[in-house]
Amino acid sequence: MANPDVVLLTKADCHLCAEARAAVERVTSSLGVNWSEQTIDADPELQERYAEEIPVVLVNGIQRDFWKIDEQRLTRVLQKVIQN
Description:
Layout (H helix, E strand, L loop, with lengths): L5 E5 L6 H15 L3 E5 L4 H7 L5 E4 L2 E5 L4 H13 L1
Parallel strand pairs: 1-2
Antiparallel strand pairs: 1-3, 3-4
Helix pairs in contact: 1-3
């Protein structure tokens, strides 16, 4: 069973980040997966790459969703990773 690396990228004053945080928490909790949150505010590289897409969910370093997190899609992605 693989343990996926789930990261939620956020930034200050992000009106969608609280919803994304809750969505990621619901999905990962239901699957027993850990996740982390990383702000892009102090990282110029991340700011340049993701500034217009925040919040962003990365699974094993691959962008899987942004803005409004689709819980069903995230669940499917994580289940695939866990099974492989």
